Amino acid sequence: MNGENQETKTCDRFDLEQEILECWKVTTDISLFKEQDGDLDALATYYEQKFKRLWSTFETLTHEGKIV
To answer: pTM for this structure?
Structure first.
């Protein structure tokens, strides 16, 4: 995010689309982590943050009237 925090970042529908696509990768990442005996708890925490960012972007766009 180049030093900007989510609350001050100007968001648009493109940002929302990109964040949805990033979260969509969860199933691929789970498979990859399982294959490499990765820490699924760490992966869960990582995706929790991604989904929080996605929700924040959605709320910002809704609040600003950019999506209804």
So the answer is: 0.76
